Amino acid sequence: MTSILPGTPTFGQPPYFWGELGPFFNPPPQQLPCCGVHGENLDLRDRTAVVAVHEAGHAVAAFLLGVHVAEISLTFTEEDRPCGKTTKVEGANTGIVFEHTKRTVLTVLAAGVAANFWVLREGGLVTPERLFFAELGGSADWAWAQRAVRDNTGVELNPWDYWRHWAIADELLGDHRVAVAQVAEMVIAGPVSGDEAAAACGLVNAPPIKRPTPAVQGGKAPE
Q1: Which of 60, 104, 180, 217 is the most exposed place for a label (fewest CB within 10 A)?
Q2: pTM for the full model?
Q3: Per-10-residue mean pLDDT for the chain, 223 residues long?
């Protein structure tokens, strides 16, 4: 299996590493810019769309693989930095509890970067810097994947094993690009529940995982 992005190595080659954040297929810029916002060099509208599609990728992959999503949302933070005033856009899928196979966990969590790559390609926005910062944006997903795999299996996740799942996620989303775009548009308009997002694109949001309630003994929960 090979990468479909221009200029990226095949999966047979070792990934690049940047600090301790995780593996990257695209090397970091030769000179790191002042911040990620300026490094991506996208206006606020495109940056918002990219982040929304990243979160929509997670959500649609979750719907397809039977993982419950409570809510999908974006937050905007105005920041005064030495390099100038910027608007930071961040997204979140909340309410996800992973008690699933390793492949499901990794595919859902890698789907954000896969969708991010897709929207950059479709929008004619691909640059080496943007590909790198798209991967950097998945570092929180990588950390989540580590915890989920450790909690579910008791083993440590190989970084390479996580990062190669973006291609698996990209294939999964291939027939559902319209759904990803629909969910992204809803998220841009405001927070949306997983049930609403799934229904809008003809998919099903799995029911939430219910953890067992401790048995009551003598009128109170056991300590």
Answers
A1: 217
A2: 0.85
A3: 37 48 70 82 94 97 97 94 87 92 92 94 91 86 88 81 84 96 97 98 93 53 43
